[in-house]
């Protein structure tokens, strides 16, 4: 490539006949191709040139072309005018800029361009094309012309009747152009229907498709390629480089689109995970809130059966209801940390859950739940012990009360002084007194049992025995203490 750039346009071409550069057919091909190439860039500013040897003479369009293809701001042009000195100055600025990019312009001067020397102008444009359209092409450590040739070979290798080994005869029948298009946009050309030897059809098809669908200007004429024994290498290389840049730009755009799509997918996934976290946190907190009143319920049970049922209900909660919720909590925390990792890897800000739904909020609520569970279990077991004791006390009270009641049965008659007793009958009075003395002796003997009964009744009352009213009622029926 260095040889291509370093030599003057009219220099030697190695083994190629040095007089070919003067060939009018080549000159015509180059002029048409280079003009189309320049216009493909100048159109961005709404400028179109018609004649290379005249439209670049004042240097204004040349400076604009270089600014577009280099993406840099060049020194301002001299006053727009027809003075030769201004034109030479403008072209000189353009040539100096080209030289600053490492391109040698031996033999090409400002005066020749200003004077409309076509060969020098073509040589200048070729050096620009080499530097800005071909030099940066790189394929597997090969660059410029060799890299572009390797790219063509790799892309067209699978196609029949295509053997790219140069930039003149290998493209003469048009199949190489069609293969390049088909390789990247197979829907545009039915390659299998093409015939070798039908050069004009193949060339025109490729040029028309490239211009219409790929925005590649038609830089060559099918007639010129078909009728010229050996097409101009520079013209063909310039046109093929447009294919390379068009497809490379498309590939980069596709890769960029994929990257953007990937970013969008990552963002959507992150958003989905955020929403999922919010839902999981809300559900878990809601369950905790629904469960807390039940755990905090300390209503005493009425009997041992109910206490046992409540304790069994609590056991079911601990073995069946709570474990899935524990799993949900673990998944929630893992979900949160995974989300934060994804956000960090994608350089996104850390996720902050809604108010009250932080991981710390969940942990605090869970801790409160477990404390309530512990207190609930202690209460239920305490209730069970209380009711078990009450059942024993009630049974003991019933046994003792029954004995006392059995003893007291039939004693009422002995305690009643009827009108039938003759108060003057000393014998009856003494008999009655004897009965009372005997009864009093029995009561004295029963005092210990009655004291125990009272103690049992009091204990049943203290422990909130649900039949405490019945116990108290039995205790009120103590006629044996009267008399």
Number of helices: 17
Please report the first level of CATH classification, the CATH class of the largest domain. Answer: Mainly Alpha
> How far is it from the N-terminal to the C-terminal residue, by CA?
140 Å
Beta content: under 5%
Sheet/helix structural class:
mainly alpha
Low-confidence stretches: 1-18, 479-483
Explained architecture:
The longest helix has 64 residues, at 233-296. The radius of gyration is 55 Å and the shape is rod-shaped. Helix 9 runs parallel beside helix 10 (199-213) and helix 12 (233-296) packs parallel to helix 14. The protein has four domains: 2-134, Orthogonal Bundle (Actin-binding Protein, T-fimbrin, domain 1), CATH 1.10.418.10; 138-256, Orthogonal Bundle (Actin-binding Protein, T-fimbrin, domain 1); 259-386, Methane Monooxygenase Hydroxylase, Chain G, domain 1, CATH 1.20.58; 392-481, Methane Monooxygenase Hydroxylase, Chain G, domain 1 (Up-down Bundle), CATH 1.20.58. The chain has 17 helices and two strands. The chain has helices spanning 2-6, 24-42, 52-55, 60-70, 84-100, 110-114, 118-134, 144-156, 175-184, 199-213, 222-227, 233-296, 304-345, 359-408, 412-415, 426-462, 468-476, and strands spanning 138-139, 142-143. Helix content is 68%, strand content 1%. The protein has 483 residues and is mostly helical. Mean pLDDT is 84; it is low at 1-18 and 479-483. The termini are far apart. The chain has a two-stranded antiparallel sheet. Residues 28-133, 142-248 form the Calponin-homology (CH) domain. GO terms for molecular function: actin binding.
């Amino acid at each position: 490539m260095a040889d291509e750039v370093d030599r003057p346009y009219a220099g030697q071409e190695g083994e190629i006949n040095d007089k070919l550069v003067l060939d009018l057919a080549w000159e015509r091909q180059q002029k048409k191709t280079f003009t189309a190439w320049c216009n493909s860039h100048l159109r961005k500013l709404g400028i179109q040139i018609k004649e290379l040897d005249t439209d670049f003479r004042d240097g204004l369009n040349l400076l604009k072309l270089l600014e577009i293809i280099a993406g840099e701001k060049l020194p301002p042009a001299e006053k727009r005018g027809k003075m030769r000195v201004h034109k030479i100055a403008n072209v000189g600025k353009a040539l100096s800029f080209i030289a600053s990019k490492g391109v040698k312009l031996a033999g090409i001067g400002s005066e020749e361009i200003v004077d409309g020397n076509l060969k020098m102008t073509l040589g200048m444009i070729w050096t620009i094309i080499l530097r800005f359209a071909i030099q940066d092409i790189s394929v597997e450590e090969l660059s410029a012309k060799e890299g572009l040739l390797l790219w063509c070979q790799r892309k067209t290798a699978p196609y029949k009747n295509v053997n790219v080994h140069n930039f003149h005869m290998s493209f003469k029948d048009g199949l190489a152009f069609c293969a390049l298009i088909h390789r990247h946009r197979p829907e545009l050309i039915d390659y299998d229907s093409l015939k070798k030897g039908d050069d004009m059809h193949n060339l025109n098809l490729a040029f028309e498709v490239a211009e219409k669908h790929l925005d590649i200007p038609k830089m060559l004429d099918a007639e010129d390629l078909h009728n010229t024994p050996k097409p101009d290498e520079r013209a063909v290389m310039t046109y093929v480089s447009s294919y390379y840049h068009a497809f490379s730009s498309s590939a980069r755009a596709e890769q960029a689109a994929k990257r953007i799509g990937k970013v969008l997918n990552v963002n959507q996934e992150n958003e989905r995970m955020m929403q999922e976290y919010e839902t999981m946190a809300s559900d878990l907190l809601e369950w905790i809130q629904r469960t807390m009143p039940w755990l905090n319920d300390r209503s005493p049970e009425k009997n041992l059966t109910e206490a046992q049922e409540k304790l069994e209900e609590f056991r079911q909660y601990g073995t069946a209801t709570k474990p899935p919720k524990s799993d949900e909590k673990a998944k929630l925390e893992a979900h949160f940390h995974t989300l934060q990792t994804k956000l960090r890897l994608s350089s996104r800000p850390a996720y902050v859950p809604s108010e009250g739904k932080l991981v710390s909020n969940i942990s605090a609520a869970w801790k409160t739940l477990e404390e309530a569970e512990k207190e609930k279990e202690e209460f239920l077991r305490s209730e069970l012990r209380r009711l078990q004791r009450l059942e024993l006390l009630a049974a003991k009270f019933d046994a003792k009360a029954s004995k006392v009641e059995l003893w007291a049965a039939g004693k009422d008659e002995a305690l009643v002084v009827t009108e039938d007793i003759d108060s003057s009958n000393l014998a009856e009075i003494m008999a009655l007194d004897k009965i009372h003395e005997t009864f009093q002796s029995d009561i004295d003997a029963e005092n210990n049992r009655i004291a125990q009964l009272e103690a049992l009744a009091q204990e049943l009352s203290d422990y909130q025995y649900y039949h405490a009213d019945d116990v108290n009622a039995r205790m009120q029926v103590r006629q044996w203490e009267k008399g």
